[in-house]
Specification:
alpha+beta; single chain; Aminopeptidase; 2 domains; two-stranded antiparallel ribbon; about 290 residues
Length: about 290
């Protein structure tokens, strides 16, 4: 019988008994060590083979708060560099006007810069020139710089998709269980920036089309699994989403205007359009299985 559910995993009373037994067998071990041992015992791993240690620790904390287990005291408070993260430094690059025709700007070079020496350049450009500024992604994510004639002309950020999105879920037609199991096969375009001195017709839609061709392979290389569907939000109070429509993205509906912190049915943020782009004709079958 399922007693609890955490991040898509069902937790039975038998699981709780085994966790209690693990804690009793290792009374002097840290919470981190217990989490690692439990992941190994359950073979609880990410798609790339790494243990789901942080998720497991969150589950253990939930069970303790529910009165089901008693964890050892916290032995060490790790410094969290994200708590007081310094804002990215402005990028020092050439900003002369670019007004070439798209064909004259070719070839464009796409560089995935996460975990590379060019990542600070990406962060700085987003911080300085995107109206939302830079935001550190959480979970799986990739960052791209697009180059032309040796200069960056655009930046794109992709991350894990929101877990609950009504218009998207209705379009895919998957069950709640399939969504929990397969949400990782969707990538969310969190940022798209054409640098303000770049004025080239059709560049944005061309970049989106090029991204759709390569992103699944890049995600496979970084995280060990492909991507079957892309999604994004467009704020109609600011933008029309023309480049997405020109790149054949589909309008799926609108958000409710309620964020994760909302505890009511009253919108607490702007309502946005939801757009999606299938990367395979069989996306419904693969996401719903």
């Amino acid at each position: 019988m399922v007693e609890f559910r955490y991040r898509g995993r069902e937790i039975t009373q038998e699981d709780i008994h085994s966790i209690r037994a693990l804690i009793e067998r290792h009374p002097n071990e840290s919470r981190r060590t217990l989490s690692t041992k439990l992941c190994e015992a359950w073979q609880w791993r990410q798609a790339n083979g790494a243990l789901r240690d942080m998720v497991c620790r969150g589950m253990l904390l939930m069970l303790e708060r529910a009165g089901q287990i008693t964890l050892p005291p916290v032995s060490y408070v790790r410094h969290n560099p994200l708590a007081k993260r310094a804002r990215p430094e402005p990028a020092q690059i050439e900003t002369t006007l670019v007004e070439d025709r798209l064909r004259d700007l070719q070839p464009l070079e796409f560089t995935q810069v996460r975990r590379t020496a060019q990542e600070p350049l990406f962060n700085g450009l987003m911080e300085e020139h995107h109206y939302l500024g830079y935001e550190q992604p959480v979970g799986e994510h990739l960052k791209y710089l697009v180059w032309a004639q040796g200069r960056p002309v655009a930046c794109l950020a992709w991350s894990s998709a929101p877990r609950h999105l009504g218009s998207r879920d209705r379009y895919i037609g998957w069950s709640a269980e399939a969504r929990r199991r397969n949400i990782g096969f969707i990538a969310y375009n969190t940022r798209f920036l054409i640098l303000p001195w770049v004025r080239v017709e059709h560049l944005a839609s061309h970049i989106l089309g090029r991204m759709a061709v390569r992103i699944s392979e890049d995600w496979q290389r970084m995280y060990g699994h492909p991507i079957y569907f892309l999604e994004t939000f467009v704020d109609p109070g600011r933008f029309r989403g023309t480049c997405y429509r020109a790149a054949n993205w589909i309008v799926l509906g609108k958000t409710t205007g309620r964020g994760k912190a909302s505890n009511s049915y009253v919108p607490n943020r702007s309502i946005k359009e939801v757009l999606g782009y299938p990367l395979t004709k069989r996306f419904r079958q693969r996401l719903g299985q």
